[in-house]
Amino acid sequence: MEDLKLNVSLLRKRVPNLTVAARSVGLRPATVSNLCTGKIPLARAEVKTLVRLASLANCKVDDLIIQRGEEKMIETGIKVLDLFAPLVKEGKTGFVARPGMGQLVLLAEVFNRLKKQGFRSVFFAGDNNNIADAVAEAEFHSTSAEEILACIEKYQPADIILGVDRRIYLSEDFYQLEDRFYERGINNITFAIVDTSGEAVDEELPYGPLETLWEFDMELAAKHSYPAVNPLTSISTVLEEINLDSGHMEVQQQARKVLRRSKELTYLVEQRGVGNLSEADKNTFERGKKLEAFLTQPLFVAEEFSNQPGQSVTLSETLKNVKAILHGEVDKIAVDDLKYIGSLSV
């Protein structure tokens, strides 16, 4: 069953508020979410769980099981995203961050970059000062579901990137809007859900099942290491289906291992100094710091404030550069020299 997965798209269309509905039939929301994101492989799902999900969706169990390979990655040119938690075409991505950690700037950057790929950008959110960055990059912004629907119909058949405020995303109005998309055959929308209130950080399942989760890290934000997306906890379902020949998954897993161990060693270094580490741990510690620095990146929408031109790095270059760092090919380069650059010259 390794080549099979849950038909999350069908579940969402048939059961809009899946998290709440799961409880009604005796399923743990976390279990359903983990099945949808692939954290729990379909092969490990209990038959009774699939039967209950099928009953919610009013379909057969067979309808809930589909072949892998249908999801496609949208390459953004943002290193930390493309490597650790790629954007899924026509999927849903949730941002989890407290205010001031850069999530609206990142949404604006995603709008900016996808417009260059032919996407039309739309933002469904309230009117407040916190969303100014994203509104500035959106081609259309409204607080009205009717206006959003009319705009998206006008933009057909172009691909759409639709930013949505979490408060609207969890509302009945949004569930009805999604039903109207489905009824009218509109399926070319990639959703990016932001939380302007900062409440999502304290929720176990702030959005319900997603294809991609971008979780922001307070420590990175405090160090002004942007985009402050946590490479250890941000995930995407598409990684199991793409770029198998390029070694994407292998590089990602090695990078996570080094970053995690480097973070652990930081506490030892602060207490005893780097000189007390073994040679292997010293290499891991230093390469982890260099990798963290390399994952920062100048953004196009921040050029006015950073005085640095935005940088875009292809996935193939990112994989090549990360492997070079992990293999010690840039050990002689200082950490600070790796911050806010694009690609390495290796």
From TrEMBL:
UniProt xrefs under Pfam families: ATP-synt_VA_C (PF22919)
GO molecular function, one term: proton-transporting ATP synthase activity, rotational mechanism
Main localization category: membrane
GO cellular component, one term: proton-transporting ATP synthase complex
Superkingdom of origin organism: Bacteria
Keywords assigned: ATP synthesis, ATP-binding, CF(1), Ion transport, Membrane, Nucleotide-binding, Translocase, Transport
Keyword Metal-binding among record annotations: no
Domain called ATP synthase A/B type C-terminal: residue spans: 244-332
Entry's localization field: Membrane
InterPro entries: ATP-synt_VA_C, ATPase_a/bsu_AS, ATPase_alpha/beta_chains, ATPase_F1/V1_b/a_C, P-loop_NTPase
Gene3D superfamilies on file: Bovine Mitochondrial F1-atpase, Atp Synthase Beta Chain, Chain D, domain 3 (1.10.1140.10), P-loop containing nucleotide triphosphate hydrolases (3.40.50.300)
Family: Belongs to the ATPase alpha/beta chains family.
Protein name: F-type H+-transporting ATPase subunit beta
